[in-house]
Structure formats: structure tokens, C-alpha cells
Amino acid sequence: MSKDMKFLVVDDFSTMRRIIKNLLNDLGYGNVTEADDGATALPMLQAGNFDFLITDWNMPGMPGLDLLKAVRADARLAKMPVLMLTAEAKREQIIEAAQAGVNGYVIKPFTAVTLKEKIDKILETRANAA
Amino acid sequence: MSAIEVEVTMNTNPALQEEFGESIAALAGALAAGDDQRFFNELDGLVQRREFALFGELQKLTNDLQGALQRFRIDSRLVDLAEKEVPDARARLDHVLKLTDEAAHKTMDLVEQSGPLAERTSRQAEDIMVLWKKFRARDIDVIAFRDMLARMDAFLESAHADMDKVRGNLAEVVLAQGYQDLSGQIIRGVMKLVGELEVALVELVRLSKTGGQRVRPSNVDETSRGYGPVVPGVNHGPAVSDQEDVDALLSGLGM
Fold it and tell me: B225: distance to nearest CA of chain A, Å?
């Protein structure tokens, strides 16, 4: 995977999407698209050759957990790396996300370093598995 | 037995018979005997007993009316809260969202504008430093020296303008934080409303005497939808406190 990877950032708050997008740009990932909830994101994912999904959990419409489950249930998207970036901090929720097949879980408020670490870790794991 | 006594005995129910039978009989007796004094005494006694019962009923009615009025007052307050102030509160909170959104974007705009200016200043200074070091080491020819002077002229001018702009942007960033004051006031107003609503509902429950049957809202949907950020004092069960906790938990799950 290279810096040309196509990211989809899903969050209902435009400020948070902008923060994540800027951080991704700073990390060298310039190809970033945004969506404001799972229901908007899913058809975009199905249509658009994305390489990496970063999603919030708590959103109106389709929440991030449901989006994750929908991605894992879609044969063409099932292997997509998914990073949950959320304020949801209950232990049972994190376990639920892990069971649903999330690749990384970053809790808000987060730092640029944490985001980079988790993305790198996910990509590294995938490169080793390939 | 007189005609009146017979009628009383035959047509009244046992309770009335017990309560009034004796008095009516005495009344009838006095009337039959032509004892006016005793007749009126008995009649006054009867009327007084009846009035006492009426006053009791009246007292009960007054209490009921008072309760109904109190409930009506709470009901009208609730109606007012539900019809006007709750939608108002929603509009006010929506405005808070808008204020915070605008302030965050404004701040990011200003920071994004300032970043390249600071970067350009740093880069130009770095370029000049290379020539400056050569000059200090007396290792610079005339052409390079002239180049350095031209660069310094340009640098001083652009650094002055750029840093002025950055300073202005920083001042605007500070101003943009003014949303906190406005949103804080609006949120306080909504908190007051929620408090009032709580008092009215508790009072209504008390008057309706349905406090014993508590219905707990289901949290099934909430779990999948999410609870939002952890709020101190609002407990939704065991939660992680930071990223390290998350990492430890996930690593425990083999991730």
C-alpha cells in the first residue's frame, strides 16, 4: 500500500472530518473522501475502490458499528481495513467492535501520533499477512 | 303506629332507618300529639345533622377542587413547557451546535492560512542562512553576496507582512473562542428548563400517585447506536479512560 491509498472518513461532524482529513494529508495521504454517516458511506464504499475506512461510531442514520458489520458482510468489502475513531468508551462496546472485525480502535480525543501509529500498525499487519 | 311511621318503616333503607328513623318517629309523635315545642326541637336537630353532613361533603369537594386546580396549574405548565419551551430549547441547542461548528471551522481556517506563512518565513530564513554562513566565513563571491542581499531584502519584507498576517490570525483565533460564552449561556438556559420540567413531572407523578410503578427505558438501541463521550457523573457502565486502556483491552482480545 502506498501514499496513493484512497481513504473514506465517516463522521457526522464536519469539523472532525476536516481534522482527520488534515492529519491524513500531513501523513502524506492526499486521497481522502468524506461521508457523514454509515448510510451515505456504504454506497460510496460499494461504488468507489476505497482502500481504508475510518469511521466514527455514534452518528445519526447508520451508526459506525452497523457500517462495520455491513462492510464485513459484503464480499467485495469484507477485507477492507477499518479503523474506528470514536468517543465511545464502554469496554463492552470496544469488545463488540473487535468481534465485528474492526482493525483498530482510537478513542477521542486523540493525537496525531496515535492516529499515525494505528494506521501504520494496520497496514503493517496486512502487509505481513499478504 | 301512625301513617307516617308506617311509611318510614316500609320505604327507607336500613341505614337511613337507623340514622333518621328515631328522629322522624319523634317528629311524627310530636306532630300527632300537637307538641309544637318538641316538634321544632326535633326538626332543628334533624336539620343540623343534615347540615353537618353537607359541610363534610363540601369540605371534600373543596379539597378535590384544590387538587384539580393544582394539577391544572402543573398540567398547564407542562403543556407550556412541551409546546413552547422544549421546541425552543431544541432550537437553542441547535444554535449551540451551529456556533461551535462555525468557531471550529473559523479557527481551522485561520490556522490553515497561517501555516504556509510561517513555513515560508522559515524556508526563506533557512535559504539566507546558507549564504550568511558563507559570508561570515568570508567565503562568498560578489555575485553570491548580491544574491544574498536581494534575498534578505525580499525576506525582511515578506517576513514582516507574513508575520503581521499571522499575528492578526492569532488574534482572530482568540476572538473565535467567544462562542464559549454564548453557547455556555444558552446551555445554562436549557439546563434550567430541564430542571423545571423535572420538578413539574415529579409533582405530576406525586399527584397522580403513580410513583411506585417505574418504567425503565430500554437501552437496547442505545448500545448499538452509541452513548457519546463519557460525561463525568453520568454512568453507563465500565469504560476505558484513555487510548492505553483501549490498547490493553484489544491486546487482551488478541488484537
Answer: 6
Q: Is residue A1 part of a domain?
A: no
> Does residue A11 fall inside a structural domain?
yes
Q: How many domains are there within chain A?
A: 1
CA-CA distance, B75 to B70, in Å (whole number)? Answer: 8
Kindly report the number of other CB atoms within 10 A of residue B179's CB atom.
19
CA distances from B124 to A94, B134, B139, B158 (A): 48, 16, 20, 9
Return per-residue pLDDT of chain B as tens, 255 residues.
444 454 545 566 788 888 788 888 888 999 899 889 989 998 998 888 888 888 888 998 998 888 888 888 888 888 888 888 888 899 999 999 999 999 999 999 999 999 999 999 999 999 999 999 999 999 999 999 999 999 999 999 999 999 999 999 999 998 888 888 889 889 998 999 999 999 888 888 887 765 555 655 555 566 677 888 877 777 777 888 889 999 999 998 888
B231 close to A (CB below 8 A): no
Q: Which of residues 14-53 of A touch B (CB under 8 A)?
A: 14-15, 18-19, 22
Residues in chain B closer than 8 A to A93 (CB atoms): 223, 226-227
List the single residue in A15, A63, A114 with the smallest CB-CB distance to B101.
A15
Q: Give me Rg for the CA atoms of chain B.
A: 45
Domains, chain B:
84-209 (1.10.287.500)
* Domain residue limits at A74: 7-129
The complex scores an ipTM of 0.84
